[in-house]
């Protein structure tokens, strides 16, 4: 016969349920991406999943925690900052549970891109505004880099002999080498030094607009600056956006609002790699520019399918008036 003491002893020997916090720590110790887990495991309150056993973390618990932690975020932000890292921790812990992402997390599938003749006109107008700005526009078009990734690039990460730029910090959280096609290698090697600004000499007055502080590394060959020098001198600012708006206007190009910014070049890269590089959705993912097929799949819709072209076979009237 079991005594109360025996029952208490057996109860004490039962393993404690693994909490999300414990699973997250194990995930990070195993090398998992910790970049976005901090806010989740610090989150407290009734909606927090930090101290919940894994078997109690269902869809409702995840949705409530995401809404509580990111009340004003877009579905895309919630998915990136909460749903994706939570799913990674659960998967690592052996929890095979399908997690439904927030409604609208894929964003709008409406995409604008540049046709080649449009891009070439834009390159010329960007060059006319500023040669280094023209190089930046080409760089974004032929690499698919996000603006922040390009502006953070440093010369030490540029390896022209291998035609690559190493990007240590990406939006997807995974460092990656970025391939530089020959057109970019040539543009980089022929890029002129940054111009110096003339200084006023005593007794001599410069024309308005000539004087001013010289650009960093002015006069030095573009690729012979220090290894810690940034590849591009620009910052993500209103001035840079105005430069793009002016180049688009001068090139006679206009796009819907929210589709004519610097992300236009990411979409152009994806579309060109699909049209001219003949890559399907999974081929685009394997370029490492996109982390998930759902993100790359939008470019499949920018090309008329072979099936749709069968409209050429439909009957038409041959009657000529």
If you had to describe this structure to a student in words, what would you say it looks like?
It is built from 13 helices and three strands. The model has no long low-confidence stretch (mean pLDDT 81). A three-stranded antiparallel sheet has the order 1-2-3, with no helix packed on it. The protein is globular. It has helices at 4-13, 20-29, 37-42, 59-69, 75-92, 116-129, 131-143, 147-152, 182-189, 238-250, 263-275, 281-285, 293-296; strands at residues 158-159, 164-167, 176-179. The protein starts with a helix and ends in a 25-residue tail after the last helix. Helix content is 41%, strand content 3%. With 321 residues, it is mainly α. Helix 2 packs across helix 5 (75-92) and helix 6 packs across helix 10 (238-250). The chain folds into two domains: 18-92; 116-195 and 215-301, Orthogonal Bundle (hpI Integrase, Chain A), CATH 1.10.443.10.
CATH class of the largest domain: Mainly Alpha
How do the SSEs run, as a string of H and E? HHHHHHHHEEEHHHHH
Strand order of the largest sheet: 1-2-3
What do we call the CATH homologous superfamily of the largest domain? Intergrase catalytic core
When the domains are counted, the total is 2
Alpha-carbon Rg, integer: 27 Å
Number of strands: 3
Helix content: 40-55%
Strand content: under 5%
- CATH architecture assignment name of the largest domain: Orthogonal Bundle
User: What is the name of the CATH topology of the largest domain?
Assistant: hpI Integrase, Chain A
Shape: globular
Class computed from helices, strands and strand pairing: mainly alpha
Query: With helices defined by DSSP (H or I, 4 residues minimum), what is the helix count?
Result: 13
What integer is the average pLDDT? 81
The major beta sheet can be summarized as: 3 strands, antiparallel
Distance between the termini: 105 Å
Poorly predicted sequence stretches spanning 5 or more consecutive residues = none
């Amino acid at each position: 016969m079991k005594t109360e003491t025996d029952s208490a002893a057996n109860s004490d020997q039962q393993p404690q349920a693994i909490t999300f916090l414990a699973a997250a720590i194990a995930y990070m110790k195993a090398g998992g991406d910790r970049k976005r887990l901090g806010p989740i495991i610090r989150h407290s309150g009734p909606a927090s999943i930090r101290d919940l056993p894994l078997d109690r973390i269902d869809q409702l618990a995840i949705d409530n925690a995401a809404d509580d932690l990111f009340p004003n975020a877009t579905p895309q932000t919630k998915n990136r900052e909460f749903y994706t890292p939570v799913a990674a921790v659960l998967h690592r812990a052996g929890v095979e549970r399908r997690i439904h992402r927030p409604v609208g997390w894929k964003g709008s599938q409406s995409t604008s891109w540049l046709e080649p003749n449009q891009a070439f006109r834009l390159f010329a107008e960007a060059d006319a505004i500023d040669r280094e700005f023209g190089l930046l526009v080409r760089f974004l078009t032929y690499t698919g880099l996000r603006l922040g990734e390009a502006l953070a690039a440093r010369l030490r990460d540029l390896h022209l002999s291998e035609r690559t730029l190493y990007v240590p910090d990406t939006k997807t959280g995974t460092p990656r080498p970025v391939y530089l096609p020959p057109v970019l290698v040539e543009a980089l090697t022929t890029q002129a030094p940054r111009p110096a600004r003339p200084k006023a000499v005593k007794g001599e007055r410069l024309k308005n607009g000539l004087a001013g502080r010289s650009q960093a590394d002015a006069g030095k060959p573009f690729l012979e600056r220090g290894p810690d020098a940034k590849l591009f001198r620009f910052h993500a600012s209103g001035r840079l956006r105005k430069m793009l708006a002016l180049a688009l206007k001068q090139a006679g190009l206009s796009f819907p609002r929210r589709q004519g910014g610097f992300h236009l070049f990411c979409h152009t890269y994806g579309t060109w790699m699909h049209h001219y590089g003949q890559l399907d959705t999974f081929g685009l993912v394997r370029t490492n520019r996109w982390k998930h097929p759902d993100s790359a799949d939008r470019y499949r819709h920018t090309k008329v399918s072979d099936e749709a072209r069968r409209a050429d076979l439909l009957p038409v009237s041959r009657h000529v008036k």
